[in-house]
Specification:
The chain has 12 helices and 6 strands. It has 280 residues and is an alpha/beta fold. A 6-stranded mixed β-sheet has the order 3-2-1-4-5-6, with helices on both faces.
Length: 280
Amino acid sequence: MSNSPRARALAKELRAARNEVGLSMKLVGKQLGWSEAKVSRVENAKQGITESDVSAILAVLRVTGTDRDRLLKMAREIDQPAWWELGRELPEQLTALIDAEQRAVRITNASLNTIPGLLQTRAYTREIMVAGGVSVDELDDHVSIRQVRQGILSKHDPAELCSFIDETALLRPIGGTRVMAEQLRKLISAADAPNVTLRVLPLEVGAHAGLSGTFVVMEFVKARPIVFLEGRSSGAFIDEPEDVSLFDEAVKSLDAQAADPASSVEIVSGYLKKYEGEAA
């Protein structure tokens, strides 16, 4: 299978492994008995690849141990539909995002108007999706998919998540006081996990780098980091190093302006008390 999210992920990993050892596509192809063009097609997910092909490439690149096992596993599973592909007609962009989240070792999210999807409750997600125009027929599936995506935070060897949340997201009573109280309790509980860091950007900081729009930076074991920019009905992936570096600088700026983790939980707790009092 070529040009699927899984195939593209494997292709990126193989390209990164080749670049790490400093071999050209021409030299790798020569050792494999392939043309340079074939190596290029493989590294751009424009040609199908078998587990034995991957094994041969890894031997040339001298990739061993856990990295070799991981990449061979990716090759074995490349034709197997992932859970989000079974019986669902999902946009290719969404499946690519989910696949990236599954592989990421660290995710940094800057959210302006809402709580990040990986930390949302079902009720909060439902309100967001209804307001966004998701049809009644698709609503339950879309809410469930977002909830299942959160499993990356609790699986064995979970991803690290750092969420920068603008205080305005805490102010807006999406779904009413009861929904918001439940949502903020989940935020506080999530922040207790060793792999989740919550950073609130208080109103008094004024302008900050997150005001340009929500973005997500995902880092991987070998492949270079990518940035996902989400729009109303579409989004974009950015992976060119010079472009990604702009978001790295934005994260550094947010880190300097945001409340520390303990103070962030205190801010959320203050809003929780407010919503709980109003819901009583």
